[in-house]
Amino acid sequence: MYVPPSALDPVERAMGYPYAIPACSYIFEKAGSRPAEIDAALTAGRLPVLACGSNRAPDQLARKYFDFDTATIPVQRAWLRDFDVVYAAHITGYGAVSACPMPAPGVRVEVSITWLSDDLMARMHATEGRGHSYDYAVLSGLDLALEGGGALGETFAYIHRGGALNVDGGSVGLAEIAATGRPGPAWAQPRAIAEVHRRLGHTGTVEDFIRENAADRALCLAREAVLQRDAHAFAYEGCRVID
Question: Domains in the chain: how many in total?
Answer without folding.
Answer: 1
